[in-house]
Amino acid sequence: MARLDLVAIRKALADQIRPAVPNTTAYRPDSVATGAPTVWVDMPPVQKLTFQPGAVWNIPLTVVLAVGDTWDRTSQQTVDELIVDIWEVVDGDKTLGGTVSAAVATEFTPVTSAENRGWVGGLLDVKVSLNATLAS
Among 20, 40, 98, 124, which one has the highest count of C-beta atoms within 10 angstroms of its own C-beta? Predict the structure, then answer.
């Protein structure tokens, strides 16, 4: 059985932890070294999930962005698109990133895949479902 520990994922995602709304904890991606704006990613409380190889796991995320923000722990994408790529976890490789531009829409519609995409706009409260398949 493959075992996924969300605590390890959170440590890989953020440097700081701050209180958030009840039943969530907020995490800041690494923006100090890159000079990128601070972006908070809210995740549920600590959970430990166990899956068979090939299982799909789903975790709700809340991402709050402003136009002009950059949030990508790996390539430091600039904010110049309407599409937000939320998360991909494959073979233990954890990345978090996305982009946002003008205030065009306020609704986010996730899709069921390793990458969730949707329209975003304004000061964003983007609620998505994180979906990833564990490799065997």
Answer: 98
